[in-house]
Structure formats: structure tokens, C-alpha cells
């Protein structure tokens, strides 16, 4: 105490950016310490890439190298597994065990928590992308295209899946979130253009599947990295719509308990 009625450190909430950084660092450490999460976010995409690139199991519909077709799709799968499936399950059980209830009485606002979780997801995705890129290059991948287009696709894809994952975790029970998130992951792995070309589906079904965020992300990455296309505005637009809807709905309907 320096003077009458004055205390150091001065009580009160830290600045909002500092709170978000601290929560993001905590979320990142928790994510990296969870073995089941690492299995989902790192091991499964890596196995999919290696297995389907080296063994002739699925007809990708591509005339070029199999790994050139698969690598962009697996990058999209990594975003899906981290930003949507892993985050939805982890947040759902945090909500069940009362962790979010305690955070609700802290100065950190709801949107600040979502921002911190999204930052943690981005950090994890950077590590995933580095690992998957190294594996793909070792398998003979020859990427093309503009890095800016790739970065925009990954950022918007992360925002879209993060919003949807938080929406699911903040509205359903933990057990329902666990089942639904894993089911969606498996369905989108098959029907999202990740390892099976959307050209294999009937016309009407394909048109509907192309509007899914995983299809826009995998398709946009494939257009840029495999075909060297320019800015994929249509896919970016689809992802932007999903990001706005998902994050907006999560901010509106997310329940702390």
C-alpha cells in the first residue's frame, strides 16, 4: 500500500487484449496436452494422406498424381478436425464440468472466449499444416498457386468451422456433441471432396454438397494448389457466409451451462 486507500497491484480486470491472449495460451496448452485431440487433429489426417497416397484404394478422379489431389483435401480435413470436431467436443465437456460457468463470472466476455479458442485453433493448425506439408512433399507433392489465396481459404475455413463447433458445443449436451461432432466428421470426410472427388456424385447431390464449408475449402485449396488457379472467389464467398452465420449464431445462442 502506497497511500491511504491505494493498493498495488491495483484491483480490477486486465485489458481485454491481455485477457484474450492469456486465455488463448491456456486453450493452446490444453489442446496440445490432450492425447485424444492430437489423435484426431494430427494422426488421422496424416494417416489418411499417407494411406490413400500410397495405396490404390479410392479413385480420386484426378488425372495427375494422387498426392497432388489428396494433399489439399487433407489440409481441409485438418482444419475440420481441429476447428470443428475437436473444439466442439472439448468445449462441450468444459461446459458440462462447469468450467465455462466459472469463466462466465470472469471479466472475459463471451465473444472474448470464442476469440481465444479460435486463436488456439489457429496455432494448432499452423503446426498441422507444417507437418502435413512435409509429409506430402516427401510423398512427391508439387503444390502451385498463390500463398495468399491459400491463407485466406484456411482462415475463413477456420472461422466457419470454429463458429459451427462452438454453436454445437454451446447448445447441445456434451454426450450429444461428442456423437454429433464425430458423425459429422465422418460424413464430411466422405462427402466433402476430401478423398473422393465431388464429380463422383449425381448432379443434384453434387450441387448441394458444393455449398458445404468443407467442400468449398477442399475445392478451393485444390483449385489453387493443384491447378494453380487464381483467387477462388466463389469458395471464399461460401466460407465467408458460413463464418458469419456460424459465429453469429454461436455468439447469440451459446450457453455457459
TrEMBL record:
Q: Which domain of life is it from?
A: Bacteria
Q: How does it sit in the membrane?
A: Multi-pass membrane protein
| Principal subcellular localisation of the protein | membrane
UniProt keyword terms in alphabetical order: Antibiotic resistance, Membrane, Transmembrane, Transmembrane helix
**Pfam families membership:** ABC2_membrane_3 (PF12698)
UniProt xrefs under PROSITE patterns: ABC_TM2
GO MF: ABC-type transporter activity
Q: List the GO biological process terms.
A: response to antibiotic
Q: Which InterPro entries does UniProt cross-reference here?
A: ABC2_TM, ABC2_TM_bact-type, ABC_2_transport, Nod_factor_ABC_transporter
Ranges annotated as spanning the membrane: 38-58, 70-93, 114-142, 148-169, 176-198, 236-254
Q: Where is the ABC transmembrane type-2 domain?
A: 36-257
Where in or outside the cell is it found?
A: Membrane
Name the coiled-coil region(s): none
Q: Which GO terms describe its cellular component?
A: ATP-binding cassette (ABC) transporter complex
Q: What is the name of this protein?
A: ABC-2 type transport system permease protein
Amino acid at each position: 500500500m502506497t497511500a491511504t486507500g491505494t493498493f498495488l497491484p491495483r484491483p480490477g480486470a486486465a485489458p481485454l487484449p491481455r485477457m484474450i491472449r492469456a486465455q488463448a495460451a491456456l486453450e493452446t496448452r490444453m489442446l496440445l496436452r490432450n492425447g485424444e485431440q492430437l489423435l484426431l487433429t494430427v494422426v488421422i489426417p496424416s494417416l489418411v494422406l499417407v494411406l490413400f497416397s500410397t495405396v490404390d484404394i479410392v479413385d480420386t478422379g484426378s488425372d495427375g498424381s494422387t498426392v497432388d489431389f489428396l494433399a489439399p483435401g487433407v489440409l481441409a480435413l485438418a482444419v475440420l478436425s481441429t476447428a470443428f470436431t475437436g473444439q466442439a467436443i472439448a468445449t462441450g465437456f468444459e461446459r458440462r464440468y462447469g468450467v465455462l460457468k466459472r469463466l462466465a463470472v470472469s471479466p472475459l466476455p463471451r465473444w472474448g472466449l470464442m476469440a481465444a479458442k479460435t486463436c488456439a485453433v489457429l496455432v494448432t493448425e499452423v503446426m498441422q499444416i507444417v507437418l502435413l506439408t512435409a509429409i506430402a512433399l516427401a510423398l512427391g507433392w508439387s503444390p502451385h498457386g498463390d500463398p495468399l489465396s491459400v491463407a485466406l481459404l484456411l482462415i475463413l475455413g477456420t472461422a466457419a468451422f470454429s463458429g459451427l463447433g462452438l454453436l454445437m458445443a454451446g447448445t447441445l449436451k456434451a454426450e450429444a456433441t461428442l456423437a454429433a461432432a464425430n458423425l459429422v466428421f465422418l460424413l464430411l470426410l466422405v462427402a466433402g471432396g476430401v478423398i473422393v472427388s465431388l464429380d463422383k456424385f449425381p448432379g443434384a447431390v453434387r450441387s448441394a454438397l458444393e455449398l458445404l464449408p468443407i467442400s468449398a475449402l477442399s475445392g478451393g485449396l485444390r483449385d489453387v494448389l493443384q491447378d494453380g488457379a487464381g483467387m477462388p472467389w466463389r469458395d471464399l464467398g461460401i466460407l465467408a457466409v458460413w463464418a458469419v452465420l456460424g459465429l453469429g449464431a454461436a455468439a447469440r445462442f451459446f450457453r455457459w451451462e
